[in-house]
Design brief:
By secondary structure, the chain is α/β, with parallel strands linked by helices. The protein has one domain. The chain contains four helices and six strands, in the order βααβααββββ. The strands form two sheets. It has a four-stranded mixed β-sheet. The two termini are about 25 Å apart.
Length: about 110
Amino acid sequence: MGSKKIFAVIDTNVLVSALISTDINSFPLRVMAGVYSGIITPVYNLEIIQEYEDVLKRDKFHLDCNDIESAIGVFEQLGLNLERRRLSNNGKHQTFSKQTICCNTKRDC
């Protein structure tokens, strides 16, 4: 039996905790290990990436800009970028973002 792929929106608090944790067995670091190993695929859009950046740059976390860019870069490289959609009254999807759905892999979605 093979392992299942997990697609997840990673909460900002999990990312912050992973970057400031000193416990290598902490759950946030285990989540990040899952991302690096390909078990977990982070799902994001532009708003989520912006929130990650805004929160991680807060002075109280004392995080290096290179570490922030690296963490976000991993999500963008290994993750799945989805545009936001909503259902219209007729049940069809209406796009209200200019982003397109894309996979950050070499194959087409």
